[in-house]
Every structure is written in structure tokens, then in C-alpha cells.
């Protein structure tokens, strides 16, 4: 058995009135690029708790997780090594928006204008996957 294992991260896609919450990364990799709020899962922590914690730490808001968007596991998605991300869909549930010292900035970007943004990792793909799922859900109504 191989002693090396992938690292585990979480990301949360939070949509509010057609806008998605993005953070601007501070530090490498992808310094200055935009991403979904997220980070590494701590030992002994559930992925759900990590997702809620990371959003609170980075932008100060409380989030309620609504479901799983997907698991992104391409070994080349992160230049630091093999990193698997569990990506949740969440809804803002209070808290005061603020920029933490962990990030450069944050913004609410129009979901239909995200193709013009320079993203870190594979977050452009994650957002495109969400748009497809969202269109399918709206078509079923």
C-alpha cells in the first residue's frame, strides 16, 4: 500500500440573488486569483464542519450547507500536490461580512459573468458544473 495520501479540502459555493461569493487568494499558489471560500480539513473534523468554519474564518458569515455539489480529485488540480476537494452548496445565514487576514478581498460576483474572472485551481469548472445543475433544477420546476 502506498504511504502517500491526497490532502483533503472543502469549498463552498454560496449563491445569493444570482451572485456567488468569491474570495481573492492571498499567498501562493494562485496569489491574487479568485476562488470559492474553502480550505484544508483539520484532523478529527468533518468535511461539513470544515466548510462552515472556512467560510466563517474567511468572510465572517454563517453558512447553512444545502447539499453536495461534487468531489474534485484530479491529481493536478493543485500545484502543491494531490488535493481532493469536497464542494458544498451553501446559503448565507447571517453573520457580518468582513475580509479576514487570510484573504486579499472578497466579492459577490454575478453568476452569469464569472467566465470573465481569473480563477484559482479548478474553481471555474466547479462554478460551470453548478450552473448546469442549477439550470437542470430550474427546468424541472
Could you walk me through the main structural features you see in this protein, from its secondary elements to its overall organization?
The protein is α+β, with helices and mostly antiparallel strands and 141 residues long. It has one domain: Nucleoside Triphosphate Pyrophosphohydrolase (Alpha-Beta Complex). Helices cover 22% and strands 39% of the residues. It contains 2 helices and 7 strands, in the order ββββαβββα. Strands 1, 2, 3, 4, 5, 6 and 7 form a 7-stranded mixed sheet that branches. The chain is globular. The relative contact order is 0.26. The mean pLDDT is 96.
Write the layout of secondary structure elements.
Layout: E1 7-16, E2 19-25, E3 34-35, E4 38-40, H1 47-59, E5 61-72, E6 83-95, E7 103-110, H2 123-140
Parallel strand pairs: 1-6
Antiparallel strand pairs: 1-2, 1-4, 2-3, 2-7, 5-6
List keywords for this structure.
single chain; 141 residues; 7-stranded mixed beta sheet; 2 helices; globular
| CATH fold-level name | Nucleoside Triphosphate Pyrophosphohydrolase
Which percent band covers the strand fraction? 35-45%
Structural class: alpha+beta
Give the oligomer, counting copies of the same chain as homo and different chains as hetero.
Answer: single chain
Second CATH tier, the architecture: Alpha-Beta Complex
Rounded to an integer in angstroms, the radius of gyration calculated over CA atoms is 15 Å
